[in-house]
Design goal:
- The relative contact order is 0.17.
- α1 (18-35) crosses α9, α5 (162-177) crosses α6 (195-207) and α10 packs across α11 (340-352).
- The chain has helices spanning 18-35, 49-55, 63-67, 85-99, 162-177, 195-207, 220-229, 241-254, 295-307, 311-326, 340-352, and strands at 6-14, 39-45, 72-77, 104-110, 126-132, 142-145, 153-156, 182-187, 214-219, 236-239, 262-266, 274-278.
- It is built from eleven helices and twelve strands.
- The model has no long low-confidence stretch (mean pLDDT 95).
- It has a domain at 1-102 and 269-353: Isopropylmalate Dehydrogenase.
- β1, α1 (18-35) and β2 form a beta-alpha-beta unit.
């Protein structure tokens, strides 16, 4: 890709604070693009809960076809108190992840200067969670029967395939080989007797193929405790869909606020667009009050730039918000006094300096 290429970006601000942090991040992205001679074509979609209230679905019937024409997708947040999560998530977020084979959910967990951690130690934290993103515990197989009766029953079937585990573990091992050569696998094979021993076997076989990378397998409950006690010991953590979801939120809390945490839903082969989003959700309790922390969305934009091969531009954007945070300028969730707009103004000023 050359600097003259036009990058087509689909933008879905979504719900709640997504409609506040997305414009903030796009302001920064436009400045970065100008500095690095990058050209973007943004298409904004009004899909989300308001669209659902009007049309009884989260996106149009041909929504995935529309998104397929783009190089990447930026998502703000999805969810509203009056609409079940089964509608908001399974009507937008999860179909995108699965249709576009975004089988890796990549979540960096890193200490940021100016973002106070709840940990007593000031040792820096820097690890990455590689979450299998298309199968595992979040399958569609199952159902409920005898509804409303005393014997009402719900069944949910986890799906673990060799193919799915191999590609997640392989991605984690290759990533670790570029970092500190350690992969930690989250398991629960002492209690979940079929899927987790299978996970352990396939992860071990896969990581072994990458020279120099060491594997440790840790029960997920013990791993959660170790992440609180010694998070700096970890490099790359590979986990199933459910375990990775939970551990990544724990990781973001360790670094000060879920508001700073980004994630990438990655199709590594780039046959389909990847999607980048903050972890924080729609946060309806603070929506519309200029309280949202836009760092997670800004960092998600930086991840998108890295994925598209524009590493210098990504580094500039990360540096800008880190410099602002290091000066002690932050939003309320990090103990600061700035609102969303004022913090964004500070980051934009840094990018324009």
């Amino acid at each position: 890709m050359t600097t003259t290429d036009i990058l087509r970006i689909a933008v879905i601000a979504g719900d709640g604070i997504g409609t506040e942090v997305m414009p903030a991040a796009l302001r920064c992205l436009r400045l970065v693009a100008e500095r690095h001679a990058l050209r973007f074509d943004f298409t904004e979609y009004d899909w989300g809960s308001d669209y659902y209230r009007a049309h009884s679905r989260m996106m149009p019937v041909d929504g995935l076809d529309q998104l397929a024409r783009h190089d990447a997708i930026l998502l703000g947040a999805v969810g509203a108190p009056d609409i079940p999560d089964t509608e908001t998530l399974w009507g937008l977020l999860i179909p995108i992840r699965r249709q576009f084979e975004q089988y890796i959910n990549l979540r960096p967990v890193k200490s940021l200067r100016g973002a106070p951690s709840p940990l007593i130690s000031d040792r820096p934290v820097d690890f990455v969670i590689v979450r299998e993103n298309n199968e595992g515990e979040y399958s569609e197989i199952g159902g409920r029967t005898y509804r409303g009766l005393p014997q009402e029953t719900a069944l949910q079937t986890s799906v673990f395939t060799r193919h799915g585990i191999e590609r997640a573990a392989g991605f984690a091992a290759r990533l670790a080989s570029q970092r500190r050569n350690l992969v930690t696998s989250a398991t629960k094979s002492n209690g979940i007797v079929h899927t987790m021993p299978f996970w352990d076997e396939v992860v071990a076989q896969t990581v072994k193929k990458v020279d120099g990378v060491r594997l440790e397998s840790v029960l997920v409950d013990a791993l959660a405790a170790k992440l609180v006690l010694r998070p700096w010991d970890f490099d790359v953590i590979v986990a199933s869909n459910l375990f990775g979801d939970i551990l990544s939120d724990l990781g973001s809390a360790l670094t000060g606020s879920i508001g700073v945490a980004p994630s990438g839903n990655i199709n590594p082969e780039r046959r389909h667009p990847s999607m980048f989003e903050p972890v924080h959700g729609s946060a309806p309790d603070i929506s519309g009050q200029d309280l949202a922390n836009p760092v997670g969305q800004m960092w998600a934009v930086a991840m998108m730039l890295d994925h598209l091969g524009h590493n210098a531009a990504a580094a500039d954007l990360r540096s800008a918000f880190e410099v602002v945070l290091a000066r002690g300028e932050s939003t309320l969730d990090l103990g600061g006094r700035l609102g969303t707009h004022a913090f964004t103004d500070a980051v934009c000023a840094e990018l324009s300096a």
